[in-house]
Design brief:
Layout lengths: L12 H18 L3 E2 L2 H27 L1 H30 L2 E7 L2 E8 L6 E9 L8 E9 L12 H11 L1 H6 L26 H12 L5 E7 L1
Antiparallel strand pairs: 1-2, 2-3, 3-4, 4-5, 5-6
Helix pairs in contact: 2-3
């Protein structure tokens, strides 16, 4: 991702999120994490099925006319709305922003991402199977870090600091990639809030001032305990 000259990261959180979301599964699969594509496959099946029904209905109506197809059209419309309703429920109720679902050494893990509008803070919700014999012993916690940690001033994504952050904050990832585990990551229960800069200035100035004035730490982690 490349931002315009003198870009401000406060203005592009969704673009930064999408780029980071793409990099996260690529990194984990490079560490021999096995990714499950079930969530994506179901979403595609529901979406394409609805489109296929609409296309077939249009074709039959075009060739045979409304009088001969109106009964079938009613059922097709009902099926279309049911599939779209199921797709909406799947995206918002099941996927819930998940960017990775899979396992590592028979231990399942899911990671969901979130970003607030005009706030360049990348937030993750991590849930993975604890390293115990208990079948329902899961670790669930949230962590966050500013995008400026792995994006340069002109919007270039830098993989190494992002990988170091994940390996240092997520134990199961650190187990798979010990060379990227660092001891300099700060952990805190306090939430991060960043206000937009008062005026447009160079990106580096905004980052430095926002860090000093807002008390922005390089990373936070809020543990919710075992579930």
């Amino acid at each position: 991702m490349l931002l315009p000259p003198e870009a401000n990261l406060f203005l592009y959180p969704l673009d930064l999120k999408n780029t980071t979301d793409d990099a996260l599964p690529n990194y984990l699969t490079s560490l021999k994490f096995e990714q499950s594509h079930l969530l994506t496959d179901v979403r595609l099946v529901l979406g394409y099925s609805a489109v296929l029904i609409a296309a077939i209905t249009f074709a039959f109506d075009y060739k045979l006319g409304w009088d001969k197809t109106k009964e079938y059209t009613l059922w097709a419309v009902l099926a279309y709305f049911m599939l779209n309703g199921a797709l909406t429920i799947w995206i918002w109720g099941i996927e819930k922003g998940k960017v990775f679902a899979g396992e590592f050494e028979d231990r399942q893990i899911t990671i969901a991402s979130h970003v607030s509008k005009h706030t360049p803070i990348y937030k993750l919700k991590v849930r993975y199977k604890a390293e115990t014999s208990e079948p329902f012993d899961w670790e669930t916690f949230e962590l966050s870090s500013p995008f400026t940690r792995w994006f340069s001033a002109d919007g270039h994504f830098i993989a190494k600091p992002f990988q170091q952050w994940l390996a240092s904050e997520i134990p199961i990832v650190g187990q798979a990639d010990q060379k990227h585990v660092s001891g300099g990551v700060q952990t805190s229960e306090q939430e991060i809030s960043v206000s937009a800069p008062r005026r447009k200035e160079g990106l580096n100035n905004n980052v430095v001032e926002g860090t000093k004035e807002g008390g922005l730490s390089v990373g936070t982690r809020s543990r919710k305990g075992k579930k």
